[in-house]
Amino acid sequence: MLQAIARDLAKLGQRVEELNTRQEQMAGANANLAQLQAMAPDLAKLGQRLEEFNTRQEQMAGANAKAIEQLTASQDQLVENIKAIQQLEKTQEQVARDNAKTAEQIKAGRDQIARFLAARASEQNPQPRTSAPRPHPFAAPPR
Fold first, then answer.
1. Fewer CB atoms inside 10 A, N or C side of the chain?
2. Is 131's pLDDT higher than 90?
3. What is the Cα–Cα distance from 128 to 126, expressed in whole angstroms?
């Protein structure tokens, strides 16, 4: 019977040690829990700031997308303007060529009119023909 009591006491001692170990673990867990509870408000603030950051990031992404859209539209308009300017330059060059050709045609027309008028004037006012000089009827000088 003493041996049984000794065995029971030994088991009881082991059990006490296990309980002490668990109590220490619980104390450590309680300390960890206390630290976590102390950190909870900071974690909540951090979570809130992350939400605000995400909201701002989404707003910036939307603003960036809109800016890119506007930039693309501006670039497209710029390309169209460049094409229009190039077409205007081609048109100006053609107008300059046409003007030069018209000026040449006007000059040729004026020259033709001038020749025509000169020919007509010479037909209406014939040039006196030069022939031998006519004798002048006058008295011979006294001798």
1. C
2. no
3. 6
Q: What is the pLDDT of residues 93-122, one digit of tens each?
A: 999 999 999 999 999 999 999 999 999 988
CA–CA dist 140, 43 (Å, integer): 150
- The Cα angle at residue 24 between residues 22 and 28, in degrees rounded to 5: 115
φ and ψ at residue 47, rounded to 5 degrees: -60, -40
**Which pLDDT does position 132 carry in this prediction?**
58
Q: What is the DSSP string of 64-123?
A: HHHHHHHHHHHHHHHHHHHHHHHHHHHHHHHHHHHHHHHHHHHHHHHHHHHHHHHHHHHH
Minimal CA–CA distance to 117: which of 125, 127, 106? Answer: 125
The overall average pLDDT reported for the chain is: 87
Where do we find the tokens 């296990």? Answer: 18
Return all residues near 47 (Cβ < 8 A) that are at least 6 apart.
none
Q: With 0-12 CB in 10 A as exposed, 13-18 as middle and 19+ as buried, what is 84? A: exposed
